[in-house]
Amino acid sequence: MTPNHAALELWPAAVSGTATETDLLILAFTVLTLLLTVPVFVAITYFALRYREGSEADRSPSGIRSNLIEISWMLIPFLLTLIFFVWGARVFIASKNAPPDAMVIEAIGRQWMWKFQHPTGQAEINDLHVPIGQPIRLRIISQDVIHALYLPALRLQVAALPDRYTDLWFKADKIGTYHLYCSEYCGTDHSVMGGEISFMNPGDYQDWLTHAGAQQGKVAAGRTLYEAYGCAGCHDPGSAVKAPSLAGLHGSQVKLADGRTVAADDAWLREKILNPNGDRLAEGYKQVMPSFAGRIPEDELGTLIDFLKSYTAPASGKAAQATP
Ligand SMILES: [Cu+2]
Q1: Residue 113: predicted pLDDT
Q2: How many angstroms does the Cα of residue 195 sit away from the middle of ligand 1?
Q3: 3-state percent breakdown (helix, strand, coil) of the chain, nearest 5
Q4: How close is the Cα of 112 to the center of ligand 1, in Å?
């Protein structure tokens, strides 16, 4: 697909409701700013000419003293700009809270490329294909320095940080292909760290997925990693090491040896795997879990966490099975 961005555009295309609303917000705020400042500049010019040195203008005091005028010139612009505070805050908060049914795509920044991984396992470099009409959440992380994922057609930009997940979500409603960029200076080839995002009809997206290679699903791939890195050797029932079962762990509350209780979310799992012996020891267990920092690459870590997320409590007696 060739990108359908014109060489010279006055206003970049907007492909989601949020993007259109962001434009409207900026436009309306610009108009308000003009309404509030243009009269001031016109008045300054007028008075500068009318009362210039040597003019015959009447300079006797006008005698007008009105509290009403004083209060209203301050209060009305204040209230008008406050509307934009509320409006802007609403757009911002909505853009931070993905609907729970959003499809999650992994985005990993590294010097100097973006890697995207679809829930069904397909991965792509620099380009991203997504279906329209469906909420999509990008779970973003960096494997080295700070990057930022910038999607102008969606009016969204989020930093990609090492060691911490950030996210953004959108629901596109127009098909098309647009630029995506890294917008945080990240070294020599920062300027070429980018590609294209294609918004496709759901049917075309399915075709694309098939085309991109029907690979092992992410959960199944995660199970493979879970075994390959030896997690299963300690954590599965029947192991010689006394280690807690990880089935049903994601989303639960975990008791730590130091008495704290933490929520086992993506970020916490990630920290636990990379640095298990910091201050994250589980209550009633010994410090035997090795650190996997530097051993598991970022994309595999994401896959592993996806597996743990879907890893439910085992049926009684038999080994735990992940729901693919
Ligand atoms: Cu970058």
Answers
A1: 86
A2: 12
A3: 35, 20, 40
A4: 6
Residue 69 CA to residue 52 CA, distance in Å, equals: 26
Contact (CB, 8 A) for 94 and 22: no
CA 18/CA 33 separation, integer angstroms: 22
Q: What is the mean pLDDT of each run of 10 residues along the chain (324 residues)?
A: 58 87 92 93 94 86 87 92 93 88 91 87 86 93 92 92 91 90 90 89 87 65 81 80 86 89 90 86 87 86 86 50 40
What is the CA(292)–ligand 1 centre distance, in A?
Answer: 25
CB 235 within 8 A of CB 246: yes
Protein residues within 5 Å, CB atom, of ion ligand 1? 147, 182, 186, 193
| Ligand 1 geometric centre to CA of 147 (Å) | 4
Cα 63 to averaged position of ligand 1 atoms, centre (Å): 63
Task: Supply the pLDDT for residue 197.
Answer: 92
pTM for this prediction: 0.61
On the CB side of 190, how many CA atoms lie within 13 Å of its CA? 14
Can you tell me the distance from the alpha carbon of 167 to that of 169, in angstroms, rounded to the nearest whole number?
7
